[in-house]
Amino acid sequence: MGKEAEEIKDLIQKLAQNPDSMVFVQLADAYRRSADLERSVDACLKGLALHPTYSTARIILGRDYFDLGRLDDAAAEFRRVEAVDPDNIVVHRMLGQIALRKGLTAEAITRQQKVLALDPDDIAAQELLKEALLKAKQPEGGAPPPPTPPPTPAPVPAAAAAVAVPAPATPERAKPLADPESRAKALKVADLYVKKRALDKAREVLDEILAADPENPAALERRRALDGGRLAADPEVDARRKAEEEQRRTDEESRRRVVEEETRARRQAEEAEARRKAEQEAAEKRRREAEEAEARRKAEQEAAEKRRKEAGRALSPAEILGALAGPEDLVGDIPPAPAAQGAGSKGLLRGLTDVVEGSVGACLAGLDGVVLETVAVRPGLDAAALGAEAAGLLKGAVRTSRDFGLGQAREIVVTTEKAMLLIIPVGASYLAALALDLDGNLGRGRLELRRMAPLIERNLA
């Protein structure tokens, strides 16, 4: 598998994981680089259905349409971008190329001049402008026919060799650039060649202008300047030209700064929109997780009720109170875990899992779900997720106890098909959680966890 194929596969996976992301632009560009234009178009269309204002995607889609020969579709995409970004160089260049392919030379010339006004160093725009100007000079229906060669003169006798023979008449040169607008555009091309120090090409363009309009003052002045005829003869013109050039550079720099500011503002807006959507997605994820947790809690309640009914009798109030009695009533004279007074929080958790039979793991976390210490007895236990879930369960129990006037929540025991989870608060801001197998010693776990809570609290103080 090549590098581009691996990149496309990776981007497809990322987009599948987050269909609302901006990854579709990278995928479309990767398809385009691998010459798979149809898939690039498909990726752009699907992404733009979710992000219709993403200009970069529309530019890629317009290029795909252009390469596929769908010129009207390409022009429509580029004009959508132009509506929100009127100084986009790529848009003007591509619209100029589309106009040139469709034979709209006037529009092609205007578009490439716009590009050069924004970036005078754009070589591609210079070449496209020259091509458009050459097409504008051609008569409708194709290139002008080549001139008829002059007839071959008859041999001259030796006696008359000394007599000057007049040269055959030169055919009258066709006059392209007949209208003032075409000559003005050609003057701009000549100025660009001068700036690039392509002086021979500048002379060719000026000669074409003078062939059509021999008295054109601007062309004559530029032609004399190229030949050095007025470099020292007209200092006022030189000073005025320098001042105009300096003003032009200042204006271009101002326009460039405006474009940069607009681009920066647009990017900031796109980033802000992306952050907003990411926050919405995170909030939606939290809501779904809360709903799933609530669904699990209800399922556990229903399972417990089902087991109670299957036992054939209802529990009396005295039995319920006995079940909520302290762990000391359940475990008898079991000695505490060997936790030294100076041991750290992790050492205390490890001592807890060592002494309680059937321990799977333990963790210490804040009520905000941030895990501080973890001990995993078995590999594969996600202690970080355990702490986050425990925090949510404890906060829910505290809220329920407060709402129904049940007093302070002392502990939570959650029993599932595969394990048991014991949670107790540690101080006002933390909790400790112990995960056990179904046949683990829950009573011993309750006792040791309560005895260890004050030691952990002192460590955190």
Jot down its keywords.
Beta-Lactamase, single chain, alpha+beta, 461 residues, 17 helices, five-stranded antiparallel sheet, elongated, Serine Threonine Protein Phosphatase 5, Tetratricopeptide repeat
Quick recap:
With 461 residues, the chain is α+β, with helices and mostly antiparallel strands. It is 62% helix and 7% strand. The protein has helices at 3-17, 23-33, 37-50, 55-67, 71-84, 89-101, 105-118, 123-137, 180-195, 199-212, 217-227, 235-310, 317-323, 328-331, 345-355, 383-403, 442-460; strands spanning 359-366, 371-376, 412-415, 419-426, 430-437.
Structural summary, described in words:
- A hairpin with a 3-residue loop joins strand 3 (412-415) and strand 4.
- The protein starts with a helix and ends with a helix.
- It has a five-stranded antiparallel beta sheet with strand order 2-1-5-4-3, with helices on both faces.
- The protein is of the alpha+beta class.
- 62% of the residues lie in helices and 7% in strands.
